[in-house]
Amino acid sequence: MGPSQALPGVPARSAQPRPRPRAAGRQTMAEFSQKRGKQRDEVLGSTVDFLLANARLVLGVGGAAVLGIATLAVKRLIDRATSPRDEDDAKGDTTRLEESWKELNLLTATPRQQPRPPPAALSQPVSPPDPLPAAPEGPTDTGPEMSLQLSSPVPLCLTFQEKLLAFEQTHVTIPAAHVALAKQLAGDIGLELQAYLRNKFPELPFGALVPGGPLYDGLQAGAAERVHILVPLVLEAGLWSLVPGADTVARDPRCWAVRRTQLEFRPRGSSPWDRFLVGGYLSSRVLLELLRKALASCINWPAIGSLLGCLIRPSVAAEELLLEVQHERLELTVAVLLVVAGAAPEDPLLLAWPLEGLAGNLWLQDLYPAEAARLRVLDERDAGTRRRLLRLLCGVCRRHPSLQRLDRRHLTQVVLRLGEHEADWAEAALGARFLQALEALVDSLERASLPCQLNPSVNLFGSLRDEEIDALGFALFCGLQAPEWLL
C-alpha cells in the first residue's frame, strides 16, 4: 500500500505541513513585545507632552526647549535598552528621530502669549479682560493646544512702581481703626500720667501733657514707631534764657542750655525748678532721673492698664522714658518726653534727652515739628507725595537690619532736599523719587556729611562710625542695583 492510500475507517491527513511549535512561540512573543512597546510609547509620549506643556508655562520657551531635548534623549535611551532589536527598528530610528525634532521645532516656534501691560499704579482701575468667544453648539474636537491656552495663567509682571505701592499697602499703611485706638490709648495714658505728676509733685508747674509724633502728623510708617507724650515744663518769664550749645563748653550745635538769670533780684530757691540746677543751668539729666524713678517704681501701671483694657510696662533697660503697651488688637510704644518751649514762636523746642560727655546737662533741639510742618506745606501746595515717600523710606530702613542706623532724622533731610528741587511729585513719579532718595543717601554717605536743612551747622552723620557709614553705603548701593530687594 502506497503512501497516498488510506486505511479504511481512518480519515485522511492533510497534505500541508504542520506548523512548528517553536516558530509559533516566537511569533507570539514578538506580538506581545510589540504590544508592550506600543503601550510604553503611548505612556512615555503622554508624559513628554505633559512635561513640555507645563515646562513652557514655567520655564518659558528656552527652558522648555532644553527640557524637551533632554526628555527625548532619555526616551530614546529607554527604548533602545528595553525594546527588542530587529531590522524594522534599525530602519525606523532615523524616521522617529526626525519626527521628534519636528515636534520640538513646533514647540519652540509656538508664539508665547504676551501679557497685557499693567497699569501705571495699583490705585488705577484695571480694565477687565477681553471676553472669550462663544463656543459653537454641538460636539467639537478640542485638541491639546486649545485646552492648554484656556488653562494657562497669564504671567504677571509688576513694575517697580507697582511693587512699591504694594509694599506701602502691606507694610507701611496702618488701618484707620488701629490709628484711632492708638490715639485713644496714648491720650488716656497721658491723662493718667498728668494726674499722677500733679499729685506727686504739686510744687512743680507741669503743663498739660500733649500726645504727638508721626502718628498725629500722618507720618507713621507701620505700627512699630513710637507715640510721643510731651511733658512741658512751665518756666517763669524773665528768670530763664536759652543759650546755643555752640556757645557753651560742650560746643555742640545740636543742643541748647537753659540758664538761670536774675539771681541778684530773684535768688536761688525762689523758683521751684532751682532744685534741678547744675552750675547755674537747668539740668535735663537730673529731671530725667526724677521722672524715670517715678515711671519705673511709683506709678501703679497694672491698675491703670486694667482700667484702660491693656497691659502697660515701663521699659527699664532703655535710656529713654518708654512705656510698652500691649492691647489685644495692637502693640504700642509710648515715649515720655520732657520739653522746654520758649515764650516766642521762633524759640526752639528743647527735649530732655540722654546725652553724653559735656552735653549731658544740655537740652536737645527737636526739629521734628518744624520739619513735619514744612513737608505738609509742600505737599498741600502741589498735592504731592513727599510724606508718602518719607513713610516708604522709613518702612524700608526699619525692615532691613543693615539699614536700621538710618532713622527718621536722616531720611527727612533727604526728602526735604528733593521736595524743594524736584517739580513732579505726582503718584506716578513716586518710584522715581524713591530711587532718587537712595542715590542722594549714597552720595551723602560717600562724603560722610548730611547737613540739617533747618540747622546747617549740624551734620547728622557725625555720630556714625566709619564702619557704619561703609556698611550703610554698601547696602544702599546694592539696593540701587536691585531695588526690589529692598521691598
Description:
With 487 residues, the protein is α+β, with helices and mostly antiparallel strands. Among the domains are: 190 residues, Beta Polymerase, domain 2, CATH 3.30.460; 117 residues, Poly(a)-polymerase, middle domain. The protein is 47% helix and 10% strand. It has 12 helices and 11 strands. The strands form 2 sheets. Strands 1, 2, 3, 4, 7, 8, 9, 10 and 11 form a 9-stranded mixed sheet that branches. Strands 5-6 form a two-stranded antiparallel sheet. Helix 8 runs parallel beside helix 10, helix 9 packs across helix 11 and helix 11 packs antiparallel against helix 12. The longest helix has 62 residues. The radius of gyration is 40 Å and the shape is elongated. The N terminus is likely disordered.
Average pLDDT taken over every residue? 79
According to CATH, what is the topology of the domain at 176-365? Beta Polymerase, domain 2
Oligomer: single chain
Number of helices: 12
Structural class: alpha+beta
What are the defining features of this structure?
alpha+beta, Beta Polymerase, domain 2, 12 helices, 11 strands, transmembrane, mitochondrion, Mab-21_HhH/H2TH-like, mitochondrion outer membrane, MID51-like_C
